[in-house]
């Protein structure tokens, strides 16, 4: 506790940045005393006997970008890959949505996997909601899961949803502590309620740490135009514009477009925050990894892995209704060591969210 309070006090009073940190001018921005981290705080992880699921055939329908997007789809793929290794799954059919395909194409993809005997079928992304709603009743003996949508009430459909705003709150705090200009940015891929959750939490976390931080925000495309998740050039342009206005830490929730955000940050000597996966360790953005100070972890990999285990053990009802901070469904990455000095601060805020002392909104304030 003393260490956390000392960190916050030093930031307020002297412009210091914590022991050994040379990349942080938190004193110019932080205006709130950080809550104390709980003693001995550690992340939990699920344990248990690993089932033998060698006969399971998994259908995996990716959102646009597919495997290799260094973000959302790759997280889902990682969950399946781990399940293959741990459970002995041998047959996985992967298919990827196109950026402008219609609902009929999505329905056909899911139907084809179910017709060919894949069970379960996992739809990666809310864009599949209407397709799952239409297809699932036609295959009552096939189990379906959909990530990021909980609007479907079919008995053979399992929603895998997350508290993205909670993890985004923590990286918003990190952005304030690392910003030299007290000026940060957010780049969203598509202006949808889901991506607004990332913006909402990020802004709330930043404002919890500082009452004077300036925040830029922009979406690459409006709702309905999903090319915003697959346009690195536009991500670069928007991020560069925010940096030119003074933002020196940019958080992106933009799928494959985030690669362009990282490139803009690297070119301008700014910092960036990744999303979904631990993007510091993603091979497809390795050229820009040094600017990634943290990533908001949306543990799609954990949710997919846990779902496949639940299917294999017939325990789907035991899955959490929402993957949040309490079950390590969201969080933040520490790869690269750029936020090691403020981890006690982040753990203090995390504890308050878990304990209900801080409620994070899922909608932006304006």
Automatic annotation (TrEMBL):
Its main location: membrane. The keyword Methyltransferase does not apply. Residues 61-360 form the ABC transporter substrate-binding protein PnrA-like domain. The keyword Lipoprotein applies. Pfam families: Bmp (PF02608). It is a lipid-anchor. Residues 11-53, 92-111 are annotated as: Disordered. InterPro entries: BMP_lipoprotein, Peripla_BP_I, PnrA-like. Residues 20-48 have a biased composition (Low complexity). Keywords: Cell membrane, Lipoprotein, Membrane, Signal. It is found in: Cell membrane. Belongs to the BMP lipoprotein family. This is BMP family ABC transporter substrate-binding protein.
């Amino acid at each position: 506790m003393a260490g956390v309070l000392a960190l916050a006090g030093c930031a307020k009073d002297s412009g210091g940045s914590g022991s050994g940190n040379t990349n942080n001018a938190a004193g110019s921005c932080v205006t709130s005393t950080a809550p104390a981290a709980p003693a001995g705080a550690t992340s939990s992880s699920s344990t248990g006997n690993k089932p033998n699921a060698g006969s399971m055939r998994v259908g995996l329908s990716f959102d646009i970008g597919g495997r290799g997007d260094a973000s959302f789809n790759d997280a889902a793929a990682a969950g399946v890959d781990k399940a293959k290794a741990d459970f002995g799954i041998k047959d996985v059919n992967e298919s990827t949505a196109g950026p402008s395909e219609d609902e009929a194409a999505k329905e056909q993809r899911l139907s084809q996997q179910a017709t060919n005997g894949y069970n379960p079928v996992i739809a990666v992304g809310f864009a599949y909601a209407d397709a799952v709603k239409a297809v699932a009743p036609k295959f009552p003996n096939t189990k379906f899961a959909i990530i990021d949508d909980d609007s479907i009430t079919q008995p053979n459909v399992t929603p895998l949803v997350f508290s993205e705003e909670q993890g985004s709150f923590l990286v918003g705090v990190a952005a304030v502590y690392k910003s030299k200009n007290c000026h940060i940015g957010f780049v969203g891929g598509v202006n949808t309620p889901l991506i607004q959750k990332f913006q909402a939490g990020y802004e709330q976390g930043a404002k919890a740490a500082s009452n004077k931080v300036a925040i830029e925000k922009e979406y690459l495309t409006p709702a309905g135009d999903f090319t915003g998740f697959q346009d690195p050039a536009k991500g670069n342009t928007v991020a560069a514009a925010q940096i030119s206005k003074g933002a020196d830490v940019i958080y992106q929730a933009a799928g494959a477009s985030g690669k362009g955000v990282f490139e803009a940050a690297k070119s301008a000597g700014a910092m960036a925050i990744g999303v979904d996966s631990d993007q510091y360790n993603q091979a497809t953005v390795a050229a820009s990894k040094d600017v990634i100070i943290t990533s908001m972890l949306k543990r799609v990999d954990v949710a997919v892995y846990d779902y496949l285990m639940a299917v294999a053990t017939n325990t789907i009802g035991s899955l959490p209704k929402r993957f949040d901070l309490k079950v390590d469904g969201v969080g933040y990455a520490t790869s690269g060591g750029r936020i090691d000095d403020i981890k006690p601060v982040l753990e203090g805020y995390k504890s308050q969210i878990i304990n209900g002392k801080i409620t994070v909104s899922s909608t932006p304030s304006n």
